[in-house]
From TrEMBL, chains A, B:
Residues 16-84 form the HTH gntR-type domain. It comes from Roseateles aquae. This is Phosphonate metabolism transcriptional regulator PhnF. PANTHER family: MANNOSYL-D-GLYCERATE TRANSPORT/METABOLISM SYSTEM REPRESSOR MNGR-RELATED (PTHR44846), MANNOSYL-D-GLYCERATE TRANSPORT_METABOLISM SYSTEM REPRESSOR MNGR-RELATED (PTHR44846:SF1). Keywords: DNA-binding, Transcription, Transcription regulation. Gene3D superfamilies: Chorismate lyase-like, Winged helix-like DNA-binding domain superfamily/Winged helix DNA-binding domain. InterPro entries: Bact_HTH_transcr_reg, Chorismate_lyase_/UTRA_dom_sf, CP_lyase_PhnF, Tscrpt_reg_HTH_GntR, UTRA, WH-like_DNA-bd_sf, WH_DNA-bd_sf. SUPFAM superfamilies: Chorismate lyase-like, Winged helix' DNA-binding domain.
Amino acid sequence: MTAHPHPSPSPTGSAAPRWQLIADELGADISAGRLAPGQRLPNEAQLAERFGVNRHTLRQALQALARQGFVQARQGSGTYVRELVLDYALQRRTRLTQSLAAAGEQAKRELLASRIEPAGAWAAELGLARSDSIELLITRSSVRGRPVGVSTAAYPLPRLAGMAEAFARLGSITAALQSLGVADYTRQRSVVSARLPEAHEADALARAPTQPLLEVVYLNVDAQGRPVEAGRTVFAADAVQLSVNAADWGQP
Amino acid sequence: MTAHPHPSPSPTGSAAPRWQLIADELGADISAGRLAPGQRLPNEAQLAERFGVNRHTLRQALQALARQGFVQARQGSGTYVRELVLDYALQRRTRLTQSLAAAGEQAKRELLASRIEPAGAWAAELGLARSDSIELLITRSSVRGRPVGVSTAAYPLPRLAGMAEAFARLGSITAALQSLGVADYTRQRSVVSARLPEAHEADALARAPTQPLLEVVYLNVDAQGRPVEAGRTVFAADAVQLSVNAADWGQP
């Protein structure tokens, strides 16, 4: 069920090199869940023996799997099935709930906290005065019971009063915005960076403080170009990749 | 000269809260280079004394600076001027050399290595047979003498024979492709992830192995949609952010 970036090619004919066949077989094991995310592969000597090849050939297979996003080598520790579970497309209509839905039934987004406060540092993004009010929602996204992202998003008041209640009822930011009269919204800007987590972020994501985050700072606007949501999401980088596809943005 | 994501707002009137004025002043010091990238700020007690405010107010100012991308708190170690030097726009015409040029005179891209080899794992991306040949270029981008990214890119042969020589002569991938008959190319897909570096990557970027990377795996195609470049770039995450702007992709 894992959404890997480059699905394993269908088994190739006997013309394919030996390492490619091994990579295909291991990739199929991962796609089918016979090798689970986070699991360590047997060591190179064991795998080489299992497939009846030398270490060099085996290493070529593991390198191909790593390039395809199936596994990740950790220095001095071995090769692990990558914990990638979510492909989050940055596109004109970027929708986290839809990306989660694509990850399967066990994906969900929950409200951790909400509060009403002065716009402060969010004011400029949202076209408000600093003393205007916003509603702040903190939500957590999980796949198969494992947290993958925590979002902090600000909504302008009084226009969007009731977002927390609407989200709690409808389970989706898009549905909540629609219920408050925002028929459509698009992503105006995303800024992506990577860093190590703060302690509270590592806690919320159930990750070690040594595991990097992907951070997306974003602004969504309605059909008239008015800001409706400014926010930032931190994703556990072992579980999420971001994709930007020309086709998703329409041709020029 | 640092390309920060959210430039400091112009000094506000006396109606602005005290913490905002302090954030503006420190932000101006950073923009002007009076506080250098990587430098640690004086501790909170010293700063509070300098500005004649209590710790709470000072902390609000530092939080605003962090949100604006000027500084970064490191747990148990203090607050540092962020080493962000490069904003790399993922857009229809994504051009690393242009992003570097925007970072100023001291930015450059150099050829670390090149070789000709079977297409292998690059074949599918480039629409080649695995036994076809590619030219592989490994380049390093630096700003103000500090490495910010290392790119590994594959070009299909025989069509683009001579890329390494052309790049060495012209100093830009875009110019090298043009000299080989590719008048224009566009970004078809970028996949962004974050992870800790391998030892050789940390070496090439002159970073500690505990400092995260931003990795971009990409495909560029010519005006006819034929792949001309498949590659991956690892960026030092303390020095680079990626941006995706709707305006760069044209309206639908």
